[in-house]
Amino acid sequence: MKDKIMQLSGPKKLAVVAFAFGFIAMFAGNPYDNTFTNVNTKEIALSSMNDADKISVSDLADWIIKAKADYKLVDLRSQEKFEEYFIPSAYNVLPVDLSTSGLMRNEKILLYGDDNVISAQAWFLLKSRGYKGVYILDGGINAWKDQILFPKLIADATPEQTIEFNKMKEVSLYFGGAPQENSEQVNKAEIKMPELKAPVQTNLTTAPKKKKREGC
Amino acid sequence: MTILTETLKNEKTAEKTTHIVVEKPYSNPYYTGFGLGLVLLAAFVIMGRGLGASGAISTVTAVTVNAVAPEHAQSNEFFRGYIGDGTTNPLKDWLVFEIIGVLVGGFISGALAGRNKITVEKGPRVSTRTRFIYAFVGGSLMGIGAKIARGCTSGQALTGGALLNVGSWAFMLAVFAGGYAVAYFVRRQWI
Amino acid sequence: MNAPFYKFGLFGMDISLVVAFIIGIGFGFALERGGFGNARILAAQFYFTNMRVLKVMFTAIVTAMLGVFYLSLIGWVDLSLVYVSETYLVPQIVGGLILGFGFIIGGYCPGTSFVSFATGRKDGLVFILGVVFGTFVIGELFPYITDFYYSSAMGKITLPDVFGVSYGMVVFAVVVMALGAFAAAEWGEKVMAKKNAGK
Fold it and tell me: pLDDT tens-digit profile of B100-155?
């Protein structure tokens, strides 16, 4: 058998090799299923402990106002919730689509959900698949509502707290929010979410920032 | 001294003649295909994308239209897609640089094999002028088809073929079908 | 090893252009070696006298397909990060037919026309100008054909999805098909050579 193969011409040897590999391929499994990557569990555990990967909502508000563009803001909530309201410049990516969404491993990715739970899970998923700069918006959209859109001045505020509130007021108004000066009468249900100014961006690859398709 | 230059001259002319004479035959198609496959594989592994060609022409065309009539180009979805949002130079594009490489690579290969020469490829029965008309018409059809199909033989057939993309395989079969369907009517040009 | 390197952030945009240039050199070199800078050789495919196009193309497809398949299986390449263009079935078939007409009438495809131009073929240059013109025409017509252009969208879909079989089965089927096509091509060339010799 071996001798016979050795006697073949070069292209025929190639053909034999191709046939063999093709034959084995039938039993080899699905290449798209492959999910093993090297996970440095210790590094991941450490960075989740010391809050280094969390971004506060006020920092994010600051970035958006300054029009920083070196990060991708990812909304992990359902499409209905996203269409209702999203933080400006966010993309809607469901957790199941994360690995195929076109996010790049060299990008700074900031994740948010309703709170920290879903974003923490997504954070772990992306980290374990080799994404470098993954961050969590601390407190998620709830914190964004409480602190940015509808900040409250508590009744017995210290002067510092009042100054802080007045600063937040401007930020809040920038995002179309409604600062609450007399917190006690506020009925949460009556607060209207700000209108969406930006068009809904759901698809990362057709987003205007990316120039064009990768194909031929 | 004169003798030396004389011999040098002789050597040079000798070299020249051998260069003209030695036009090596094309390589074994299976080895070439294997090499081409490795280049494609390298593009997958290094870049996560395949090869392409018509995309580069589209970029250059869009940039040209944009230079001549910016408003017109911006109002057209197709051209705008290749010009981008103005933050980066549209010519700083992967496919444009790849095609510059293709020109260099083709030239090097042709030079090494002594196949570089200014000529026109055609069958013996047609004039150069006819050949040029056919080339231009064929090229125009190619430009139209490649855009509707979202790629050409490199971007769709080769790249998508290796990735088992459904659209690419349908495209590939259509290309061969289209070619064979018309081949009979233009045979004068080639044989 | 984490590949595709670019998508794992091993290098940025500027380096990627250098990579593009180097890969392009390899691409152009291989095309020229295969005889693809010569319109007569490309056209011969459609008259069954020289089946180089089929041989080179399918060998390349099989090589890259097997390579990327096994590299993904051993975990070196994350296949989900390799760009697969979306399928729009009807426009791609129609586009493919038009492209096929252009191929046999013009003698090149875009990639090979660059090689032919680089090796001094004037018809290659004319062909490139034709492609530029065609691209311009389709760009101008684009607003009128937008609906057709986006029709029969199927998303990112591969042959295993369509046939409902495993990826490996399709890989094997493609290898067998290619080997069969090579055998047929070798046989066909011999038949044609005999026929032409007998003329």
Answer: 999 999 999 999 998 888 988 888 888 999 999 999 999 999 999 999 999 888 88
Give residue limits of the domains in chain C: 1-80+158-199, 85-156
Indicate yes or no: CB of A25 within 8 angstroms of CB of C59: no
Percent of chain B with pLDDT over 90: 47
Report chain C's terminal Cα–Cα distance, integer Å: 59
C-beta atoms of C69 and A34 within 8 A: no
Beta strands at A71-75 and C87-88: parallel, antiparallel or unpaired: unpaired
* Class of domain A50-206 as given by CATH: alpha beta
Q: If you measure CA to CA, which chain A residue comes closest to B34?
A: A14
pTM, two decimal places: 0.74
Whole-number pLDDT of residue C136: 92
Distance (Å) of CA A200 to CA A57, A83, C155: 21, 7, 20
* ipTM of the prediction: 0.93
Indicate the residue of B54, B81, B82 with minimum beta-carbon distance to A216.
B54
Closest residue in C to A27 (Cα–Cα): C168
User: Beta-carbon neighbour count of residue A4 at 10 Å?
Assistant: 8
| Alpha helices (H) along chain A | 2-7, 10-25, 41-49, 57-65, 79-84, 117-128, 140-143, 159-174
Secondary structure in 3-state letters for A56-86: CHHHHHHHHHCCCCCEEEEECCCHHHHHHCC
Question: Which of B31, B50, B88 comes nearest A211 by C-beta?
Answer: B88
Task: List the single residue in A with minimal CA-CA distance to B30.
Answer: A11
The 10s digit of each residue's pLDDT in C103-156 is: 999 999 999 999 999 999 999 999 999 999 999 999 999 889 888 999 888 888
Residue for token pair 């209207």: A192
Tokens of B170: 């349908």
Residue A9 to residue C84: CA distance in whole angstroms: 35
Segments making up each domain of chain A, as ranges? 7-31, 50-206
